[in-house]
Amino acid sequence: MATDHGQRLQQTASEVARMRAAIGADAQTRAWTQALKNWQAHRLARTHADLLAEPRHGAAARFFLQDLYGAKDFSQRDAELARLVPMLVRLLPEPALATIADAIEMDALSERLDLAMATLLRESDPLAIDEPAYADAYRRAGSRRDRERQIELIGAIGQSLDRLVRHPMLGRLLKAMGGPARVAGLSQMHEFLVRGFEAFRAIGGASGFLARLEARERAILEALYAGARAGWSEQAAGLASSAGPPSSA
Predict the structure, then answer these.
(1) What range does the domain containing 18 cover?
(2) 10-residue block means of pLDDT along the chain (249 residues)?
């Protein structure tokens, strides 16, 4: 049975919008969730500092670490997406629609895990997060399969974008959608799509970039589920520094 990517996109977009509305309605939950996202954003920036600094890979790294999984307020983008889904379903080819559905699935999964972790972390006082507290909450919130799915989605989204940017018609279509999107008040969601497309088009082959990104995140997952409480983020940064020259793939 074929997957209905439009329906999957609609369901996951509704799910993430509901979660963010619930988080926003409670001041303590909002504060802890934002503190967690800020902590994770700094950790990701340290782990992947070399990718962010590389001219070839920097835009793609920023797209993953800031647009797909970052500490920014995505509420406006969520609201726009709910309105944009019918247009996307009508205009975009199935592979592009599947990629966006994967991106929003990752968004929803990450938000669900962040909320579970923030709920555990708020048991402590004051509003502070360190490696041991993060490691303990990481293991208790969600499941290992959920964490593995996060990393799988990184690869799936990246590989899909890498294929999609080779189709010039899609780039022209996204550009043509810019005017109508602005008129309809959908500029943030349109800019998100364009940033992802442009970032991967600039790489010219993303397999090496994705392998480096995934390897570090899997190393952290393994360390945390092996019981590490401190030093695990530095270990991932060490993996980055010992990885050798950037791949040309």
Answers:
(1) 5-241
(2) 74 87 90 93 92 94 86 75 77 83 89 94 80 94 94 92 82 73 69 85 90 93 93 70 49
Distance, CA of 108 to CA of 31 (rounded, Å): 19
Q: What angle do CA 171, 168, 59 make, to 5 degrees?
A: 55
Output phi, psi for 48, to 5 deg: -115, 30
* Domains of the chain: total: 1
- The Cα 77–Cα 189 span in angstroms is 5
Tell me whether residue 194 is in a domain: yes
How far is it, in rounded angstroms, from Cα 112 to Cα 19? 7
Q: Is residue 57 part of a domain?
A: yes
Residue 249, in any domain of the structure: no
User: If you ran DSSP here, which 8-state letter would residue 247 be given?
Assistant: P
Pair 106, 157: CB distance under 8 Å? yes
- Chain-centre distance for alpha carbon 173: 24
Interacting residues of 149 by C-beta distance below 8 A, sequence separation 6+: 109
Residue 193 forms part of a structural domain: yes
Residue type, 43: R
* pTM summary value: 0.85
Residues comprising the chain, all counted: 249
